Amino acid sequence: MKRKPFLAGNWKMNLDRKSGVELVRALRDGVAGVGDRDVAVFPPFVYLDEIVRAAAGSNVRVGAQNLCDEKNGAFTGEVSAEMLRDVGVTHVLVGHSERRQLYGEGDELCNRKVVRGLAGGLHVILCVGETLEERDSNRTEHVIGRQLTKGLAGIDAGSLERITIAYEPVWAIGTGRNATTAQAGEAHRYLRGVLSGLYDERAADSIRIQYGGSVKPDNVAALMAVPDVDGALVGGASLKADSFLAIVRYK
Ligand code: PEP
Q1: pLDDT tens digit string along 159-189?
Q2: Which residue has the CA at smallest separation from atom 1 of ligand 1?
Q3: Is residue 105 annotated as a catalytic residue, yes or no?
Q4: pTM, 2 dp
Q5: Contact yes or no for 49/75 (Cβ under 8 A)
Q6: Per-residue pLDDT tens digits for 10-53
Q7: What is the DSSP string of 78-134?
Q8: Nearest CA to ligand 1 atom 7
Q9: Domains of the chain: residue spans and CATH
């Protein structure tokens, strides 16, 4: 099955109001003629409202980097799926390795966030990935298989069209050291096999699996040529219009 490439930029805790709006204005012009791939940016919470307005009417979708696992109520400091939808956000990241590692988010919490994101009408990108230590001790498949299986617990096949998986080896994020095409291919093939076991082959075949970890203009085409790699989740190289547009327009 041919899956539409999905290129996404995770700004993390970078940029400010002015530079974020300028970046999105440049992106909306730059992707105006690009209909054969999906494009999204993930700004910090406080800028979402304004970035959504700056991107309105364009091919650029706007997502949040996180959400609360509860619907509403006494959860100081948290932001719900409904609030994100209310300001026009359509996508959300769950389980980014920085959330897992720096803020102690485990598989069960990630699963509750996936459930809440879907219930709130969002498209969820569930991130999985192994550390260097886990790779070196041959536990890559065990770790990413567990993160995927637990992250999708209780999610029915009908919801999969609003799920994307991002395979992001932790050792490749922000390090300048991307996975080789062979490593990415192996991991993505494995993840698709796990999805096939959890659902069925048809469902597994339709779901997009992005690669993330030091994707740059000069390595994106090779990564995107790997079977089972359906897109990229980009950190550092998504902070500048020229580099992110070069990634979006890879040939
Ligand atoms: C990320 O933030 O998910 C990421 C992959 O970052 P970078 O592209 O900078 O490695």
Answers
A1: 999 999 999 999 999 998 889 999 999 999 9
A2: 235
A3: no
A4: 0.98
A5: no
A6: 999 999 999 999 999 999 999 998 889 999 999 999 999 999 99
A7: ---HHHHHHTT--EEEE--HHHHHHS---HHHHHHHHHHHHHTT-EEEEEE---HHH
A8: 235
A9: 6-248 (3.20.20.70)
